[in-house]
Design brief:
The chain is mostly helical. The protein is about 55% helix and about 5% strand.
């Protein structure tokens, strides 16, 4: 499954000129989706696109993603309320 998702990065770069989920989310949040033309363009661009983080998240020159994952793994699991 991860190979299939990773293979889609070429299409994402072709359509969106980025493979960064963060940049894409920022652009979508800034877009005026109330404008029908913008909404239609965004919908067309996003049709079938799947992006996922590849394990890099930079804070300046430092990749902080590994530390975040370690924190998540070390965190106490929260009880599930049913």
């Amino acid at each position: 499954m991860l190979r299939a998702l990773h293979a889609r990065t070429t299409e994402a770069r072709r359509r969106l000129e980025t493979t960064s989920p963060r940049l894409l989310a920022t652009a979508l949040l800034m877009a005026n989706r109330a404008d029908p033309q913008i909404n239609e363009s965004a919908t067309t661009l996003m049709d079938g696109i799947r992006l996922f983080p590849l394990g890099r998240l930079y804070n300046g020159p430092t990749d902080i993603y590994p530390a975040l994952v370690r924190e998540w793994l070390d965190a106490d699991p929260q009880p599930v309320m049913t």
